[in-house]
Specification:
Chain A is mainly alpha-helical and 119 residues long. In chain A, 43% of the residues lie in helices and 0% in strands. Classes of the chains: A mainly alpha (119), B mainly alpha (430). Chains A and B meet through helix 4 of A and helix 1, helix 2, helix 5, helix 7 and helix 8 of B.
């Protein structure tokens, strides 16, 4: 089975000649070599200039029977964040102290961090 | 807060799972290096999910057990399947067939069987689609709104797999390639494809496909047989009254023809050709009293002649045109046989095949008279009566088959001397 252009270029046979032309035009523009452009042009001719051949190729390609993929999740940056509550902004005491364990050594303040000091 | 796991995400996950199942399924039906079908073919798995057993089968495949999905894809009958599923199946099986036809290091003969099986499934699915018709027509009209163009293209598309098989059969039949042999085998398996399609024999889609497959098969076989016929004509023209080397050439062509018969899985068309051509050559040897030549011809043609005799016995009407010719080959073999009981057996088979065959009746009559004569000659003192009765029965049957058999006169006289004269012939017999 030679490669069917509907499958090779992921084209929907039911979209009609104009849509096929547009999809293949975009591919030609994106093509990097003349060989690829020639190949796409040949596929375009087969699909748009010979209706009978277009039907034969459409029937020889797997039909698109998969359910459509829905829209991706909306970006969250547009939605307003809820107002912060007190617990969101106050510094809480270490949990270890509440459990009776010795608290972990406090991290040094950023300007005193030895890792960031100049050699 | 918006839902974390949406219906759209579920749809995307299902699509990815369908693609995963399709790749695993295709890999299980072919060898490891076969190019997988395009992602769109995963619509097949989505279609399978819609069938009563499909959801569980797909889930089993995702859990690592492909057998339930394989059973649905390689179903025993496509009756009642949705047309889009049939369309996917037709294309998937053709892809499997073509992938398995390519040489693979790990799979030898097994791939050949898988390729043929997949072709048969392809033909079955296309027949079922052609029978349903509405689905293909709607796709064709959506792609090419001109009804005449759509109808013509639709016809070509449903016959495209058969056309591809016909081309493969024709292109390699002279060289006897594996691809040609495979195509001929598939074209010869239309009865199985019809069963798989779940259609009735009288369905127009079945009739059209069957006639087309038969025509394509005959066209391919004719290419091979034309070459054999030409070689035979040339060898026969030289052999008449010619040296033994030329007669051997005729037999060699028959030997090659029998090899062709084996290569085509004992094609009836090749059998008919052999029986047609063997008659004249057999008589040429017979008239030239070239018994070695005739014996070799009979030995060479033994398997195809026996096969044809069996076919005729199974279907008298289909084999009617070849009954007498096949019987003649059995008579030739009976005459060339050294063993008397084997001679009789072959002559009996010839008469069972064609009860009115002139030479068959003549030869069988003579053989029966000969047996009666030997029985009378060798009859012991004790138990003589039983032997006489056996000889009497043989003589009577020999006379029924061919009243003027010369040997019968001697047998009749011997029986008369033993007190068991043959009854007078009726006027009709006389």
């Amino acid at each position: 089975m030679s490669e069917n252009p509907f499958e090779k270029y992921d084209l929907d046979p039911l979209e009609g000649a104009a849509a096929l032309t547009e999809a293949l035009r975009e591919r030609i523009e994106e093509a990097e070599t003349e060989d690829v452009r020639r190949e796409i042009r040949a596929a375009w001719e087969a699909l748009t200039m010979h209706p009978r051949r277009r039907v034969e190729l459409a029937l020889a390609a797997h039909p698109e029977t998969r359910p459509r993929i829905g829209a991706p999740p909306r970006p969250t940056h547009g939605t307003a964040l809820p107002e912060p509550e007190v617990l969101d902004i106050v510094t809480l005491p270490p949990v270890a102290a509440a459990l009776g364990a010795s608290p972990a050594q406090a991290e040094p303040a950023l300007p005193d961090d030895p890792f960031l000091r100049d050699p | 807060m918006p839902a974390v796991w949406r219906a759209e995400d579920e749809g995307l996950l299902e699509r990815l799972q369908d693609e995963q199942v399709l790749r695993a399924l295709f890999s299980s039906l072919t060898h490891d290096h076969a190019t997988p079908p395009p992602a769109r073919a995963a619509g097949l798995v989505h279609q399978i999910r819609q069938t009563p057993e499909g959801g569980a089968a797909v889930q089993a495949a995702l859990d690592g057990d492909l057998m339930p999905v394989r059973r649905l894809v390689c179903s025993e009958s496509y009756r009642g399947l949705a047309p889009p599923l049939l369309h996917h199946l037709a294309l998937l099986h053709q892809r499997v067939a073509e992938a398995n036809a390519l040489p693979s290091e790990n799979h030898g003969r097994a791939n050949e069987d898988l390729a043929i099986d997949a072709w048969v499934h392809t033909l079955a699915a296309w027949m079922a689609l052609a029978d349903e018709h509405d689905y293909l027509e709607s796709v064709a009209l959506a792609v090419a709104p001109n009804p005449a163009t759509a109808a013509a293209a639709l016809q070509d598309a449903t016959m495209a797999p058969l056309a591809a098989l016909g081309a493969a059969a024709r292109s390699g039949v002279a060289e006897r390639t594996l691809a040609s042999q495979r195509a001929l085998r598939v074209l010869g398996q239309m009865p199985r494809a019809i069963v798989l399609s779940g259609l009735a024999l009288e369905s127009p889609a079945v009739t059209t496909a069957t006639v087309r497959a038969r025509t394509l098969r005959i066209e391919a076989l004719e290419i091979a047989l034309d070459a054999v016929a030409e070689a035979l004509d040339e060898a026969s023209a030289r052999s008449v009254g010619g040296p033994a080397a030329d007669q051997r050439a005729v037999l060699d062509v028959f030997q090659r023809s029998v090899e062709l018969w084996h290569w085509t899985d004992q094609a009836v068309e090749v059998e008919r050709f052999l029986i047609d051509r063997a008659g004249k050559v057999g008589w040429d040897f017979y008239n030239a009293r070239d018994w070695n030549g005739l014996r070799r011809l009979c030995q060479t043609l033994q398997a195809p002649v026996d096969r044809m005799a069996t076919r005729i016995q199974q279907d008298r009407l289909a084999g009617l045109a070849y009954t007498a010719r096949c019987a003649q080959q059995l008579v030739f073999r009976a005459e060339m046989e050294a063993n008397a009981s084997r001679q009789l057996e072959l002559a009996e088979r010839a008469i069972a095949l064609c009860p009115t065959h002139r030479n068959g009746r003549l030869v069988l009559s003579d053989l029966l008279a000969l047996r009666a004569s030997r029985t009378l000659r060798d009859a012991p003192i004790l138990g003589r009566k039983a032997q006489l009765e056996r000889a009497y029965a043989d003589a009577l049957r020999a006379r029924e088959l061919w009243p003027s058999t010369p040997r019968l006169i001697e047998v009749g006289d011997a029986l008369l001397r033993q007190g068991m004269p043959l009854p007078p012939e009726s006027e009709e017999d006389a």
